[in-house]
Structures are given as C-alpha cells and as structure tokens.
C-alpha cells in the first residue's frame, strides 16, 4: 500500500498521484513524505522524464498533515524531543526544496525539470505548502474547494516552508490574513490573491498542467527568491514600507491574541527574522520557531483538543456500537430562536424537516429565519440560489402534528416549562411511529424528569444546542436515567449529519457547559459586589484568553435570564444555594431595566444601534470600587479555577464521562481559554500539586467554592495528570 503512485507518459511527463489508501482525503505522513521524496529522485534522475505533474487521485488534493504524526514526533525524540522535531521538520524542508530546485545547478540556475501541481479540489496545510514549492500551481474550477493554510486555528503555523514561501511570494501584508487568520479561499479567490497561478476547467486540469510542463523554459523554474537582486514584495523590516507593515502586524496580532497564543507570535517572529536573511536560512529559522511552538504546552494541548480529540468525537469515538442511525425526517417542535436554528442547520444538511409551532404564523417565522440566513449566505457568496431553494423546500412549517408521521427524530424546543414540554411530548408520541427518538433541547430541566411524560423513556434524550445554532459548533447530548443506547447513537449520528461536534454527558443540574459557565459569570459579578474594578475583571478575563469577560457575557445572554435561573436554582436547592452574594447585583440590574444587550443597557452601555460602548459608569455608584485592588493573576485565577473546578466536579460526579469531551466541549461550548486546550489540559499544565496549592489559597481568601475536589488532591498526591490518568491514549499531543 502506497500513498503515491508514479507513471510516465509517452511525452516524458511523470505524473505523481497522491492517493492515500482507505481515506477519503489525503493527509501527509512521514512515510508519505519519504515515498514522495523517492519518486522525485526517480523523476530527476531519469533522463527520459522531462518534467513532473503532482496531483491527487481523489476529489481533493489534500487536507493537510496528519497532526497525530506531529504529536508523535516529539514523543519519539525521547530525551531530546526538540531535536527530533527540528530534524523532522528540516527533512520536510529538504524534500520541498529539492522539488523547488528540481535538479538545477544552484549557481547557473540551469538544468532543472519543471514540476507543476494540479489541484482538483481542497488543498490545505501541507496540501498547499507542497504546491507552493512547485513551479506552477493549477487549480480546477471547483467552487467547493478550499485553499489555504489553516494551521493557526489549531495553535501551530505553517512549518513546512509555507510561511517563508508565501511571504516571499506576496509580501508580509498580503500574506497576513492567510497565515495569521488561516483564511481559506476557493480557487478563484486563491488566484486573485496570487496563491495559485491558474484556475482551469476540472476536465482539463491534468492536460493543462502537462502542457505547461512540456513548454516551460528554464527561467520559469527559478523562484523569484532564488534570483539575484530579489526584493520582497512590500519590503523587509528595514525598508520604510516594510517597517510600517511589521510594526502594525505586531500590534494587531497582540490586540487579537492578547499575547496568549504562542503560535501567532512565533509565526510573526519567523516572518520578521526570515525576511532579513537568505531563503535557506529563513527556512531554518521557520523550522526553529515551529519547533519552539510544538514544544509549547499550549500548542500541544490545542492540537490535542481542537484537532485530534475533536475529530475523534466527531467520528463517534464514544458512540454505542449500533447500526447507522442517520436521520431521514426530523420533527422540530417550537419554531422560536432555537427551533428555527435547528430546523435551518438540519435542512441545510439535507434532512427533511417538519417545523411545528402553536400558531402557523410562528411556524412561518421560524422558516423565515432560515430564509434570512440563506440570503445572508448568498450575499457572502457562500450559498447559491439553488441551494437556498433546496433547503427551504425541505422545511415544512405547520401546526399540524399529523405531519410528523414518518419522523425518526424529534427535537423539542418549546418554552422552558415542564408542563408545556410534557404536553408536547404526549402529542408527538401520538403522532409518530414507535421507533422515533424524542429529544429535548432544554437548557435547565433535568432530562430524567421530562422523560416521565414519555411512554418510551429509553427513546427520550437531551440534545442541547447553543445559541446561535448556526454558529455554535458544540452539541451537548444528555443521557437521562432511562435513556437507551439507540437514542444516544441516533443523537450522535444526527450531530454528525449537521457537522457539529458532540459530547455525551449524564443528566445533572445544568448538564456540563452551563454548569461551568454560570459560575464564571457569577464570579465576575461577585467581584463587582466586592469592589473590584469592573474593568479589571473584564480585562483579566480577556488577558487570560476568554473571548468575553463575564460581565459582557451576562449582558449578551441577558440579565433577566440570569435572574430567572438564580430564582429557579434557589427554589430547587434551598439552603444549599451557593450564589446568594451574586443575586443582589443581578436583581438590582434587572430592577433598573438594565437587562443586557437586548435592552441596550446592562453592565455595559450601548449606542442607539446596539453597539457596545464602555462599562456603565453607574456601577460605581451602586458598588463602590475598593481602594485596594487585587493582583491581575488573582482575578484570573478566580475566573479560571471557578470554571475548571466545576469541570473536575462534573467528572468526579460522573456527569462528564471523558475528559476529552470536557476539554473540547469547554472550548467549543463557551470559549474556555482556547490556548489552554480546555480546563483539564489547563490543570495539567499547572500540575495537580500546584493547582491544589492555588485552590487552598483561593478557598481561604474567597470561600469554599475554590476548595480542591478530592480527585484533584488525590492526583496531586500520586503525581498524576488528567491525561495520564483518564486518557492515556491522547497524552502524547
Ligand atoms: P423561544 O421562546 O424563542 O421559542 C419557543 C417557541 O416554542 C415559540 O415559538 C413558541 O410559540 C413555541 N411553543 C410554545 N409552546 C408550544 C407548543 N405547545 N407547541 C408548539 N410550539 C410551542 O425560546 P428558545 O430560546 O428558542 O428556547 C426553546 C428551548 O430551547 C427552551 O427549552 C430553552 O431552554 C432551550 N434553549 C435555549 C437556548 C437559548 O440560548 N435561548 C439555548 C439552549 C437551549
């Protein structure tokens, strides 16, 4: 079994075809690299070969590097992991540089053989770095294809020459969105940006690439940076224009990343330092920074959570072993904010949807939500008019429960009221067949309680979406006491169909995500009540990598929702209610009509258009700022530990069944400092012993909610980490 095949045609053009067996998308492995290297050697050595076309046997060119390999490289380095990574990366550079030089004499730049890349579809990561080393890139007209370097999204940066080549090809300014934001484009966009050279009809792809190879002149093979007198577009750091770019880029990156993402900083360093030296030295610098990033615990944790484990969960790592349960016809009950969103993402994924509300007008409004989203997609050229028509045709908006006949899954998203939900459950069960699975999208009501209204509790489950449904990638699947495996498998298959990431948790108050996020918001509010500068609270959160400060977050989710949850929780918990100190602040804000963003007034002020301005200056009148302010790290520890410890308790209590879900769910569900890889990865980075020490201090100063859970103490005693104890298979990242 080989990843590449080699064939030479009658005209002397060698075609190297990348086609990894058993995979729908090519990914690069070290063995693949070695194979490719051998074939390039063969083509260069064979006098009968005039040139090479590098292409793919699949619909797409390649999805990137197999990040499991990158993760393993380090471990295989034994006592010298950095050396192993650096050498591995330099080996890749050597292969790509060989392609670029193609056998030419480095002095005269003569004697090389043309090598063209022919991309039938998507080309990401190494799947673009490899073409960038070729002499000409042809992409097929394929609007579905995505071309770019998304490495930064998982905490690394293009480390196989992509960074150095792209910057030298288009200049630092033009390369910035591609490298720093991982911006992807379709082939036309990639051509307009200067990333690919030609976009050609799909059925002419190979012929056009071959034609170019046969006609190419020696000068066509020499990259600008290998020519005498090369000047980097836009200028190097000591050029007046380049100077402005680099100063601006540094500030921009810092403002976006708050300095917590090592990959962005390392990338910028590689570009800056690389711009001032010859190409081959720049590659070496790139490799050193790349190694530096791979050795950083943040990047390794990000790769583990945001790539390896996220993908494992999406592929159903924890799915009960049952036959395929894909959804064919979905019933959504309640066409409000959530129901409409669920109908939209499902219909967009090709599922027939019956969208029911109490009144026809409400059901139609739900469908109109989908139309509005599709129109936005058309405006952004992400959706075609045909796609819009297809999606809308799949949604039947009605009040008639008889239309549910034939549904194999129901998602209920009516008011958060057990009585209403019970009524709906009974009506639905009377209308659907006996095999249909019933899911509730409740955010606060225990699933096992709601299942009492069902005749078939083993077919009753929670499928908890986050708002806005079309944007939020996490779906929390909640297993009630009586929920059976088929319901779990069905929910997982559904989530896969709509291309989101699932976690499966057991039933408990607030499940997992809300259980952790509510204490985060409350900790922020507590600090305001204590006299901590609100701006310190917000900035501390952002500087530790939370996308929103707790006060901004409660403004977004609405303060009256907070009040409602506080009241319901107090009623349910009685004396054990832990958040008495929070309520006076929340209730006072609500009493003043400061309900958050939707009311254009909350902890923040908003302009008439709803744009957030500064923190509300009336806060100080209500909760005077204390003379002595805490250290930044104290505030940050409070904000992170209050979430992290809740995650540990969820694990301890068996609500969370797998730490990988805990980490992935935390980042996708509520944006837990993504640089950390999630709460368990974060605690592992600190180490259990140090975490317990910090908790002891926080508990002494701020109360029992910071008391280290028994599990954490035990791990500290035994010198364990979460990943060594609970997921040894994914420890190696
Ligand atoms: P919403 O008020 O926007 O929508 C509820 C819809 O249900 C309304 O259109 C209403 O007319 C309809 N409805 C009420 N009773 C009905 C009945 N008997 N039959 C048919 N339709 C009926 O509420 P929402 O924000 O979409 O929330 C819906 C559910 O999703 C709730 O259980 C909520 O807790 C949960 N949820 C909400 C969020 C969120 O951020 N809003 C997030 C996750 C889960």
Helix segment tally: 30
Strand content: 5-15%
Give the N-to-C terminal Cα separation: 27 Å
Helix content: 40-55%
Within the largest sheet, what's the order of strands? 13-12-11-14-15-16-17-18
Tell me the Rg in angstroms: 28 Å
Secondary-structure arrangement, i.e. CATH architecture of the largest domain: Orthogonal Bundle
Would you tell me which CATH topology of the largest domain applies?
N-(1-d-carboxylethyl)-l-norvaline Dehydrogenase, domain 2
Domain unit count: 4
How many distinct beta strands? 20
Low-confidence stretches: none
Return the structural class. alpha/beta
Silhouette: globular
Hetero groups in this structure are: nicotinamide-adenine-dinucleotide
- Largest sheet geometry: 8 strands, mixed
Q: What average pLDDT do the residues reach?
A: 95
CATH class designation of the largest domain: Mainly Alpha
Catalytic activity: a (3S)-3-hydroxyacyl-CoA + NAD(+) = a 3-oxoacyl-CoA + NADH + H(+)
Family: In the central section; belongs to the 3-hydroxyacyl-CoA dehydrogenase family.
Pathway: Lipid metabolism; fatty acid beta-oxidation
Organism: Cereibacter changlensis JA139
């Amino acid at each position: 079994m080989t990843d590449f095949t080699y064939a030479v045609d009658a005209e002397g053009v060698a075609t190297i075809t990348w086609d990894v067996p058993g995979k729908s998308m090519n990914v690069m492995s070290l063995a693949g690299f070695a194979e490719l290297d051998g074939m390039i050697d063969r083509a260069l050595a064979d006098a009968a070969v005039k040139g090479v076309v590098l292409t793919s046997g699949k619909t797409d060119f390649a999805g990137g590097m197999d990040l499991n390999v990158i993760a393993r490289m380090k471990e295989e380095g034994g006592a010298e992991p950095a050396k192993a990574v650096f050498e591995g990366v330099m080996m890749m550079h050597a292969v790509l540089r060989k392609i670029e030089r193609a056998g030419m004499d480095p002095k005269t730049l003569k004697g090389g053989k043309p090598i063209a890349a022919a991309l039938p579809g998507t080309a990401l990561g190494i799947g673009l770095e490899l073409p960038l080393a070729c002499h000409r890139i042809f992409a097929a007209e394929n609007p579905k294809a995505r071309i770019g370097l998304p490495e930064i999204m998982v905490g690394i940066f293009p480390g196989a020459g992509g960074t150095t080549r792209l910057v030298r090809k288009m200049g630092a300014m033009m390369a910035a969105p591609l490298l720093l934001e991982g911006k992807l484009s379709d082939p036309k966009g990639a051509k307009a940006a200067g990333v690919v050279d030609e976009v050609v009809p799909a059925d002419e792809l190979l012929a056009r690439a071959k034609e170019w190879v046969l006609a190419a002149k020696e000068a066509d093979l020499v990259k600008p940076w290998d020519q005498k007198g090369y000047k980097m577009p836009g200028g190097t750091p000591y050029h007046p224009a380049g100077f402005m770019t680099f100063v601006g880029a540094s500030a921009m990156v810092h403002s976006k990343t708050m300095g917590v993402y090592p990959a962005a900083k390392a990338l910028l360093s590689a570009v800056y330092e690389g711009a001032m030296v010859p190409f081959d030295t720049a590659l070496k610098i790139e490799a050193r920074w790349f190694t530096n990033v791979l050795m950083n615990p943040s990047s390794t944790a990000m790769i583990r959570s945001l790539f390896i484990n996220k993908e494992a969960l999406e592929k159903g790592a924890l799915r009960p072993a049952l036959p395929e349960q894909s959804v064919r016809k979905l019933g959504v009950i309640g066409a409000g904010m959530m129901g409409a969103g669920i109908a939209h993402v499902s219909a967009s994924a090709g599922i027939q949807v019956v969208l029911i509300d109490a009144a026809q007008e409400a059901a139609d409004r739900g469908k109109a939500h989908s139309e509005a989203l599709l129109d936005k997609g058309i405006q952004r050229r992400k959706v075609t008019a045909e796609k819009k028509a297809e999606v809308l045709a799949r949604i039947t908006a009605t009040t008639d429960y008889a239309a549910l006949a034939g549904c194999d899954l129901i998602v209920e998203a009516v008011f958060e009221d057990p009585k209403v939900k019970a009524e709906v459950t009974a009506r639905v069960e009377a209308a659907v067949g006996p095999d249909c699975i019933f899911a509730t999208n409740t955010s606060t009501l225990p699933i096992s309680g709601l299942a009492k209204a069902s005749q078939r509790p083993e077919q009753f489950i929670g499928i908890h979406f986050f708002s806005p449904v079309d944007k939020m990638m996490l779906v929390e699947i909640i297993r009630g006491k009586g929920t059976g495996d088929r319901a779990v498998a069905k929910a997982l298959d559904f989530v896969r169909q709509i291309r989101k990431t699932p976690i499966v948790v057991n039933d408990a108050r607030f499940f997992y995500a809300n259980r952790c996020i509510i204490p985060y918001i409350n900790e922020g509010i507590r600090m305001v009540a204590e006299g901590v500068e609100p701006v310190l609270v917000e900035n501390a959160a952002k500087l530790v990598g939370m996308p929103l400060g707790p006060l901004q977050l409660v403004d977004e989710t609405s303060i009256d929702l907070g009040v409602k949850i506080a009241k319901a929780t107090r009623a349910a918990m009685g004396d054990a209610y832990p958040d008495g100190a929070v309520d006076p602040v929340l209730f006072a804000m609500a009493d003043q009509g400061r309900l958050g963003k939707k009311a254009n007034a909350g902890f923040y002020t908003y302009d008439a258009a709803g744009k957030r301005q500064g923190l509300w200056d009336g806060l100080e009148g209500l909760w005077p700022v204390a003379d002595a302010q805490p250290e930044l790290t104290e505030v940050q520890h409070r904000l992170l530990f209050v979430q992290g410890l809740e995650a540990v308790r969820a694990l301890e209590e068996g609500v969370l069944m797998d730490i990988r879900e805990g980490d992935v769910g935390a980042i996708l569900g509520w944006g837990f400092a993504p640089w950390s890889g999630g709460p368990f990865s974060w605690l592992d980075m600190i180490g259990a012993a140090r975490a317990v020490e910090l908790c002891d201090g926080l508990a002494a100063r701020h109360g029992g909610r910071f008391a280290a859970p028994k599990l954490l103490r035990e791990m500290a005693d035994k010198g364990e980490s979460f990943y060594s104890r609970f997921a040894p298979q994914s420890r190696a990242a």
